[in-house]
Amino acid sequence: MEHKEGTQPELAMVLDNLDLMRKPKKSNIEYRYDGRCIIYNFKYEADNNVPRLSRTNWSEGTVYCFVDNKYSSYYFDRAFEIKDGFSRTDSTYREINVNTIDKDVVYHDLYKNFGFLVEANVNRKPLINMQKEFDKKYYKRFN
Q: Which residue from 34, 32, 18 is spatially nearest to 118, judged by alpha carbons?
């Protein structure tokens, strides 16, 4: 799908449809569906901080959240464009200026941790070939 730079529709669709998506069995991945979906990747855990990706209700206009293993969190809008960021040092959080965030690094980290979900579903053969069904139903009408 064509999309403007800085958006990630594939990741948004994964989170919006996680219950319907194909999820490869991986020993280091955990899914939680208790009101909001959260995906944990224990493979990249560092200092007891597990990278996670979730749908959230952080603030007006933010829908998704990515927490990396370096105590930074990023909040995204419906187009999966970064809108807020926070980092933690010691026990305090500080807001990150969105304009100073290296978005390519954040998206690279996101795909390193959760890109397998996109890959498992992008070239997946559909259960039903809808074009074939459409042709069956409407062939005579238009020919």
A: 18
Residue whose entry in the numeric block shows the structure tokens 């730079």: 5
Contact in structure between 82 and 60 (CB atoms under 8 Å): no
- C-alpha dist (Å) from residue 12 to 8, 31, 49, 50, 76: 7, 16, 23, 20, 9
Spatial CB neighbours of 29, under 8 Å, sequence gap ≥ 6:
23, 39, 40, 41, 42, 43
Residue pair 47/30 in contact (Cβ under 8 Å)? The answer is no
What average pLDDT values come out for the chain (143 residues) when binned by 10 residues? 70 81 87 84 92 81 86 88 86 86 92 90 71 75 56
pLDDT at residue number 105 = 93
